[in-house]
Fold this sequence. Notes:
Elements (H helix, E strand, L loop, with lengths): L1 H17 L8 H4 L3 H21 L7 H21 L7 H21 L3
Amino acid sequence: MKWRIGFFAYCALVLYFSSLSPKEFPEQALSFPDKAIHFMEYALMGILGWGAFGRGSSGFPWALFAFCCCFGIADECWQDWLDRSRVADVWDVASDAAGAFAGLLLSMVFWKR
Length: 113
């Protein structure tokens, strides 16, 4: 149960940070490549998703991967809708999907059953 709470709290945190305008971020955060931040953010989402819903299943968790991808698309739409200085970017969604895939794959390989 604690993994599920953590997973959904993290999803809410992602939406919160997505709602901030770029000038509200610290300078250090903006010095990292945007795609790397997206990748790491969704890799952590994949790991938390595996902890919440994927343990004990065999095979790749395609439903979790689909959720993370759809969440990434919704996140980009959310940014575009809230703040005119930010635009939705298909490459951000691709970085989100790659990060989620990597996080889920790492969780499957290294998680102790």
